[in-house]
From TrEMBL:
Keywords: Plasmid
Protein name listed in UniProt: Type II toxin-antitoxin system RnlB family antitoxin
InterPro entries xref list: RnlB/LsoB_antitoxin
Pfam families in alphabetical order: RnlB_antitoxin (PF15933)
Length: 138
């Protein structure tokens, strides 16, 4: 079941991932501005059961190293102390594929994104672009 609040959609993650749900942005607003709404929706989905939630911030952060975050829903609220960025190779391929399918099916959301025209076209064509990685300066 999908939950939509105007700023995001919550989609149940496939069983082959470590996440229970994925929150996709539907606007360039950051989801953490809507924590109480997200927590309410997560309670409707999981009740008191804990869950691991993936946030895809593509529309607000673009294809940058801080695009994906994960946090734990403790059965009552999002535990923001557990909020952390997803690092390279951590479920990377499956996350990117899921995200690509979601945004290809909901291409209209990309109009309000931080993506370039070229990146939006890549998603429409089903081309998955990899994580960008920050270069470490010496």
């Amino acid at each position: 079941m999908d939950y939509v609040k105007g700023l995001y959609e919550i989609v149940k993650a496939p069983d082959n991932t470590v996440f229970d749900s994925i929150i996709y942005l539907t606007s360039s607003c950051k989801p953490f501005e809507s924590v109480s709404c997200i927590q309410s929706d997560l309670y409707q989905i999981y009740g008191n059961k804990p869950a691991v939630i993936l946030f895809d911030l593509l529309l607000s952060n673009g294809n940058e190293p801080d695009r994906f975050y994960k946090a734990t829903y403790d059965g009552e609220k999002l535990d923001l102390k557990t909020l952390e960025s997803i690092q390279k190779d951590e479920e990377e391929e499956s996350i990117l594929s899921l995200s690509s399918v979601f945004y290809r099916m909901n291409f209209h959301y990309l109009d309000a994104s931080a993506l370039t025209f070229k990146q939006r076209k890549m998603i429409l064509k089903g081309i998955v672009f990899p994580f960008k990685h920050k270069r470490v300066s010496k």
